[in-house]
Amino acid sequence: QAKSAGRNTMRFFDPTLQAIANAFIAFELDLRQGLERQEFELHYQIQVDDAGVNTGVEALLRWRRGGKEMVPPAQFIPIAEANGLILPLGQWVLETACAQLMRWAEEPGRAHWTMAVNVSALQLAQSDFVERVGRALGKTGANPALLKLELTESMLVGDIEDVVAKMKAIKAYGVAFSLDDFGTGYSSLSILKRLPLQQLKIDQSFVRDILIDPNDAVIARTIVALAHNLDLRVIAEGVESAEQRDFLAGIGCDAFQGYFFGRPIAAGELPKD
Ligand code: C2E
Ligand code: MG
Ligand code: MG
Ligand code: MG
């Protein structure tokens, strides 16, 4: 029987393990089909500058599994990275975000908005990643100067020369880079100064308790000072209250993102300017 079961099956004697294996296989299968069935959407979360002006959004991927329940990215992105689906999925994100930028180009209130797109380590490692970014821009006609790619510190290990070369080539298009979840990884200062970055993003884990935990406040101050000394801008993510915003503004943070300003939402629900 085990022989005739074919691919996409695993055989266990323990019925509990069998159920877990079956659920995992079903999840992976649904994930693969989700792209063809157009079950993915982008939501957008507003980014605000220190004058309170909306300057752009971050695109955040959403999966409506089987057209029904929403699966959070934390649950499916690691699996998409493990099975390689993140490559076509990431390209879809890039092109969909650029197409959205192009639609906003015609709207006076939103024509200046920037679009931040999360990039996976696997995408960046592709030998043709530079061309892929160029293709997304060319296909949609989006203004490269409004596109910002979010990398994480975990991508800065391994072949750093390759990363720097690709970043420089993409920067030559006019595209900017932001270092996401900053402070949670291990990036060395010597690597940081070599990267053509435009922005550091203070991780939300430091913002959460910034008003009550002196350590978090010190870390945030240090990141702002570091960013400004390297001639980078700094944005804080996970800002949920006016008090957090005021504190971050007080230590020199240039921009903010979080539920206080707006949750990630469908494009149609975003403010008009
Ligand atoms: P991230 O890039 O650091 O995105 C910020 C996450 O924080 C988002 O979670 C966002 O919804 C959430 N968030 C925003 N404001 C607040 C706030 O005020 N409080 C709290 N508690 N959370 C806030 P989300 O959308 O679940 O995404 C989680 C992660 O999944 C992202 O973290 C990013 O690493 C990854 N991700 C999302 N979309 C993509 C994508 O298109 N490609 C890739 N490669 N990764 C993605
Ligand atoms: Mg991000
Ligand atoms: Mg982040
Ligand atoms: Mg984060």
TrEMBL record:
It comes from the Bacteria. Transmembrane segments: none annotated. Keywords: Phosphoprotein. Signal peptide: none annotated. Residues 24-273 form the EAL domain. This is EAL domain-containing protein. It comes from Roseateles oligotrophus. The lineage of its organism: Bacteria, Pseudomonadati, Pseudomonadota, Betaproteobacteria, Burkholderiales. The chain holds residues 440 to 712 of 712 of the full protein.
